[in-house]
Amino acid sequence: MAQESQWELVWLLRSDPAPQPSMKGLLLILVTSAPGNSEPRQVIRRTWAAHEGPRAPQWQSVFLVGQSADIGVAQGIQREQQEFGDILIGNYQDTYRNLTLKVMHGFKWVAERCQPSYILKTDDDCFVNTDRLPEFLLEHNTIKTGLYAGSLFSREKRQVIREPSSKWYVSRQDYHLDEYPPYASGIGYILSLDAVERILWAAEHVHPIPVEDAYVGILAERAGIQVKSSARFAKHNVRWRVCNYRYLMVIHHLSPQEQEVAKGSMLQARSACHDSLEVTRWK
Ligand SMILES: *[C@@H]1O[C@H](CO)[C@@H](O)[C@H](O)[C@H]1NC(C)=O
Questions:
Q1: How do residues 217-273 score in pLDDT, each as one tens digit?
Q2: Sheet holding 184-192, edge to edge
Q3: Which fold would CATH assign to domain 3-268?
Q4: Ligand 1, pocket-test mutation among 7, 68, 93, most atoms within 8 A of CB
Q5: What's this model's pTM, rounded to 2 decimal places?
Q6: Which residue minimizes the CA distance to atom 5 of ligand 1?
């Protein structure tokens, strides 16, 4: 008897829009976003997700949004999707504890329908350097398969939280070890398409836990993919100088105003930093 996938519910319920051609290119950026976060989405659309220049885009961003119990918010999402066509609406309830379903749904859609060469998963309070990242992937990245890179956590921060009131609580039943394997923070990690496919394969064998980024780390380990630590993914938004935007690919924790400033710095860095040596490795 064929074993039923533990993801049947999520896969079956998905409402799969047909991808645009630009979603099948070099890089697809999946941005987790809560239904009510229309402002961060708007800011992202006019800052780092806006395509600059006349060239055909090599990349595209898509927001991952689930179902909202609030009818007004749910209708707003439908309108946004009609206007911009950049939202993947899943049929799971959009709650923090369902973030893992959101990301796995996004991966499944990407692997089945889009098949870009690379996938970046990030959040709607993050800045993505869309001026450098696609170029870096084309010109400098040497890890074409099995790529999984981001900002890693120290060993102490990989302890499984057993306190039931915590938003990161995981029971022993759901994950029996005391420590997660090394994994990249959910603020932003990049995967090659084959890595996403192998992670989806592993997901059929591993019970989901609500800590999305740790879960991806568990799946990657199971699939034999080694996570690569890269300082190009910044967990903190300090006052990065313009030339840092030649190097950084993701910055976490930006307000809408800070997104505008970061976009300005990113564009300035194109011409302002010709003296600084280009770093051509992930590190
Ligand atoms: C996650 O979404 C599913 C499907 O909509 C729902 O049945 C479940 O209650 C949600 N879980 C949480 C923890 O919100």
A1: 999 999 999 999 999 999 999 889 999 999 999 999 999 999 999 999 999 999 998
A2: 87-93, 59-67, 27-32, 118-123, 184-192, 148-152, 228-229
A3: Spore Coat Polysaccharide Biosynthesis Protein SpsA; Chain A (3.90.550)
A4: 93
A5: 0.96
A6: 92
